[in-house]
Amino acid sequence: MISGRWTRVAGGRDVGADRPDPAAGPAPHVDPAASAGITADGAPSAFRTTLAADPAQLSPAREALRAWLTGAGVDEADVEVVLIAVGEACANAIEHGCRFAPGTSVTVSARLRAGRLEVEIHDAGGWRAGPSQGRDRGRGRLIMTRLMDEAQLDGGPDGTTVRLVKHLSGRQ
């Protein structure tokens, strides 16, 4: 089993726009039963979606998460950084965990708890350690640790889970 905690790297944050791609195909399945509780604003306190291991599913998954976070009153700056970090974790799960294999999927679960957002991204694929190929590769962990307050990777025979935590700066 591979397990490790990444350390947060100090520095500035570049936040980019993340808009839906109309050619991305059908939206991933969002599980309404995952909404175990309700926030003070009346929004579900939990989110869960499963997306096929297809890069075309990344944009619709981000938009579903954006809608949930916005509906829960999360500040727009926090929404943007969370979407970038979660998008990176999902892209890595699709490429490295699932290896783009048809019929495989990635699950994203999120929960709001007392000003803290906890997100888990899980794939059932195998883990392979080692450096990425190429100079413009291998920055996913750095991106996640810079944007989130906590980032942890646990890999084993049942797949890989990335756990991300963001202490929210405020509610809208």
List keywords for this structure.
172 residues, alpha+beta, Heat Shock Protein 90, seven-stranded antiparallel sheet, 3 helices, 26% helix, disordered N terminus, nucleotide-binding
Describe this structure in words.
The protein is an alpha+beta fold. It has a single domain (2-6, 31-128, 139-167), classed as Histidine kinase-like ATPase, C-terminal domain (Heat Shock Protein 90, 2-Layer Sandwich), CATH 3.30.565. Helices cover 26% and strands 27% of the residues. The protein has a 7-stranded antiparallel beta sheet, with helices on one face. Strand 6 (150-156) and strand 7 form a beta hairpin. It is globular and about 40 Å long. It comes from Micromonospora humidisoli. InterPro entries: Anti-sigma-factor_SerPK, HATPase_C_sf, HATPase_dom. Residues 52-166 form the Histidine kinase/HSP90-like ATPase domain. Keywords: ATP-binding, Kinase, Nucleotide-binding, Serine/threonine-protein kinase, Transferase.
Please name the CATH topology.
Heat Shock Protein 90
Sheet-strand content, in percent, reads 25-35%
Order of helices and strands: EEEHHEEHEE
On the 0 to 100 scale, the average pLDDT is: 78
Topology:
Elements: E1 2-6, E2 29-30, E3 46-52, H1 58-71, H2 76-97, E4 105-113, E5 116-123, H3 140-147, E6 150-156, E7 159-167
Antiparallel strand pairs: 1-6, 2-3, 3-4, 4-5, 5-7, 6-7
Helix pairs in contact: 1-2, 2-3
Organism: Micromonospora humidisoli
GO molecular function, one term: ATP binding
Domain Histidine kinase/HSP90-like ATPase: 52-166
